[in-house]
Amino acid sequence: WLVIATAHAFTVQAQPTRWTALEKTIPAMMDSAEVQGLALAVIENGKMVWQHGFGVMNIATKAPVTTKTVFQAASLSKPLFAFAVLKLVEQGKFDWDKPLLDYLPQAEFESAFLKRPLDDERMRRLTARLVLSHSTGFPNRRNEDTSLRLNFAPGAHFNYSGEGFVLLQKTIEYITRQPIQDFVHAQVFAPLKMSTSSYVWREVYETQAANGHGAPDEVRPHNKMTAGNAAYSLYTSVEEYAAFLVAILNQKELRKKSFTQMLAPQIQLPIRWGDFSGKAEGLHWGLGWGLQRTKLGESFWHWGDNGAFKCYVVGYPKSRNGLVFFTNSVYGLTLANELVRRIMGDELEALFRWLNYD
After folding, report:
1. For 260-290, how does the pLDDT look when each residue is reduced to its tens digit (9 = 90+)?
2. Which helix (H) or strand (E) segment is 124 a member of?
3. From CA 299, how far away is CA 118, in angstroms rounded?
4. DSSP strand pairing (235-237 vs 267-272)
């Protein structure tokens, strides 16, 4: 019996798995796409079943990427901040349908955000719901010397806007009397044991964080963001962001009603960026998340692009499956559709055409 059992155990252990196959194919994909480093985590049935680091943090030092390597999460900062805001709503300290100017004094709004006198009364209708669904009417980003104006009436259209998230951040910071890092740490990082994650640069990141890469041999210096920004400044590892994804798929840390509202369509996406003449079939935005109906059912997703850092996350509420990956390359998102196809068995070509990533 012992001989048979031992032989059987050895046979099972020796069989190749889907993960060992990916460990062989992903480096080849990265090489063809000129992606220097990648960290990936996969969730199935609400549990993390596989995570792996590939390539290097820096092509000069050759330090390897691991699942604990810190990356710039770019716009994956937004859903995590939205999650923290929804916790504040549940605590009865904030109403996402109440105008933000009911919380933030006009003088603070003008000096800290507009940087000019308020001269558009439509801005008094701005709410957290409009911010989280990207329908404020603000552009995505402005130059420091550019006055911020509404491009359309709040709620009329979808238009992706980091500026809206900055306004919501300033409102939450005023209400809680906490900078964004302290606020999100209390609401999300501490409960989910995300001890490495931060919206501001930490000195320990000097050795823990990946460097971004432009051209194949171009190493970019660390971008040490000392002022937290809800739209793009999150530093985290794939291991810790996957813990956040698991919490959403298992509906932890928020009430069921909050998850239902977060993942309910708030507004349909336009047929193309900036083109409001038509609607994109099956593509909506919820509260902090993009939403898509695919052959696998309803999904929530987000992408991140901080230039030399590209990342992507997708989750499927019904199956409680999902994945998240980070890269330190300007070409990182060219891998997204193929990774989702191979790992999740889904096709996202329409989405990435809409995002305009080849």
Report:
1. 999 999 999 998 877 888 898 889 999 999 9
2. none
3. 39
4. unpaired
